Amino acid sequence: MIESELRNSTTAQVVAELQRRPAFVMVSHVKPDGDTLGAGLALGIALKRLGKPVYYFQQDPVPRNLRFLADAQFVSRDLPPDLPPDTLYVFCDMSDFTRAGEFLPKIERENMLDIDHHLGNSHFGAFNYVIPTECSTGTTVMHLLRELNVEIDRDIATCILTTIMTDTGGFMHSNTTPEVLELSAQLIRAGADKEEITEEIFANKRIAATRLLGRVIDAMVFAHDGRYCYSYVDDRMLAETGGDGEDTEDVVNVLRSQENVEVAALFKAYDGELRVSLRSNGRINVQAAAASLGGGGHFRASGLTFEGSLTDAFRAVEAALVAEGL
Ligand code: 5GP
Ligand code: MN
After folding, report:
1. How do residues 177-202 score in pLDDT, each as one tens digit?
2. b/e map of 221-254 (b: 16 or more CB within 10 Å)?
3. Domains along the chain?
4. Of 1, 45, 101, 113, which has the fewest beta carbons less than 10 angstroms from its beta carbon?
């Protein structure tokens, strides 16, 4: 048995805790994506159906392309001051609670439930429900919803399908197993609006985003016999194209999908921060490379925040990838 399984809570233990607690705060990570938010909303909506008060904490605003999700209008960085002391904070899709950002008030470990599918999750909660074989945190939540006996209605189904489509890259990544496709079919039968998800998340690109993509493509560098492709985004590119951080989301996948490229990196140097997104075709473990620089994620998709100049970041990330076999 692997160590993470040893320290996991069972489905029954987590469900008992969900039934016992008087109130909930669903917590998503900074720079939220469809998985962290969709998983929290799905479980939040289900708990509300069971008569529990539920709040949603997210430090950053809901990205434009996720505002169609039910309950997204209740997501906020402000929490009511009078929450019961045994409120359960449910962290979705993060390997450590620090990924929730510095605006989250201090929370005792005994009030933390950690639901995730990342390799290398730190099991920071009193309750940890971490299943790295799941394609998304949303599909991890599905095990709890089944055991809670809540009806998977249209809103919940759309949230869960959003987590799947986000984290499988629209059913393209290798985590798209037969089980994932079967579950997706069940969710669509339950009313999940696949068309809406496709339109909101994958189509419907802003013109500024496409112009920004053009700039990133112009700046692409190929190294290691074309197996490594990297590029960057900075404040100037954003100002000149009218794009913003949300418009950089999919860009690294374009770099990774160039012929012969095994690993891609996008360096995002704007708003006083330098964040790096890494993607792999499956040969090189970019989670290990990111973790060696203080970040994390999955074997094929990871990220980190870098302290230092863009040039230093280029060097450090390349060295970390070489250490993983680039
Ligand atoms: P993205 O490149 O889309 O920002 O992130 C890809 C994956 O890496 C996601 O699963 C995300 O959770 C993880 N990730 C991104 N940045 C960080 C980070 O700074 N720390 C950790 N632990 N994981 C990260
Ligand atoms: Mn995820």
Report:
1. 999 999 999 999 999 999 999 999 98
2. eeeeeebbbbbbbbeebbeebebbbbbbbebbbb
3. 3-202 (3.90.1640.10), 207-323 (3.10.310.30)
4. 1
Residue 69, C-beta contacts closer than 8 angstroms, at least 6 positions apart: 37, 38, 41, 62, 158, 159, 162
Angle at 303 between CA 301 and CA 307, to 5 degrees: 160
Q: How far apart are CA 257 and CA 228, in angstroms?
A: 11
Residue 305 CB less than 6 A away from ligand 1 = yes
125-147 pLDDT, tens digit per residue, is: 999 999 999 999 999 999 999 99
Give the position of tokens 């708990």.
47
Quote the mean pLDDT of the chain.
95
- Report helix, strand or coil for 65: helix
Taking the centre of ligand 2 as the mean of its atom positions, its distance from the CA of residue 116, in whole angstroms, is 7
Burial of residue 172 (number of CB atoms within 10 Å: 0-12, 13-18, 19+) = exposed
Residue nearest to atom 12 of ligand 1 (CA): 297
Give Cβ neighbours of residue 111 (< 8 Å, ≥ 6 apart).
Answer: 86, 87, 88, 89, 126
CA of 74 to the centre of ligand 1 (A): 24
